[in-house]
Design brief:
Strand order of the largest sheet: 1-2
Radius of gyration: 15 Å
Mean pLDDT: 78
Largest sheet: 2 strands, antiparallel
Number of strands: 2
Low-confidence stretches: 1-21
Structural class: mainly alpha
Helix content: 25-40%
Order of helices and strands: HEEHHHHH
Strand content: 5-15%
Length: 139
């Protein structure tokens, strides 16, 4: 968990107190640049803080969000066994809103990656994330 928190790129969980009952808050920090184009590495670096390393929504920042992150391993099951590649790509690029994200608590990685360099590299990273999420679907 310490490794995940230290690599958080956009959201940083800050505990307002250790004692029970005190609120947890989220502090926004600028995303770190990356050279990676590996979907798993990108997921762990940018998504796991909310969605968890396993993609099931139990990341260290999840409890501080108003709406808990979804279980990304269930996307295909919820879509009659088919992974909705186009829809998920639009979500990652910020072209399709996700109701549970409310006021865009989830960073739009297409835009974030575009700000790190070339559009081509941004597209490569978004596609790698898409493939990784497709690969963690329950059978």
């Amino acid at each position: 968990m310490k490794r995940i928190l230290s690599s958080v790129s956009f959201l940083c969980l800050v505990l307002a107190g250790v004692a029970g009952g005190q609120d947890k808050t989220i502090q926004r920090v600028p995303p770190k640049s990356t050279v990676s184009i590996d979907g798993k590495s990108l997921f762990h670096e940018y998504c796991a803080v909310c969605h968890g390393v396993d993609g099931k929504g139990g990341g260290p920042a999840a409890k501080a969000l108003q709406v808990p992150p979804g279980d990304l391993t269930q996307i295909s099951r919820k879509n009659e066994g088919k992974f909705p590649e186009e829809r998920i790509m639009r979500v990652l690029k910020g072209e399709a809103p996700v109701t549970a994200h409310g006021t865009h608590d989830m960073p739009v990685w297409g835009r974030v990656f575009s700000n790190m360099g070339s559009v081509t590299m941004a597209q490569t990273r978004v596609h790698a994330l898409l493939q990784y999420v497709e690969g963690i679907q329950v059978k």
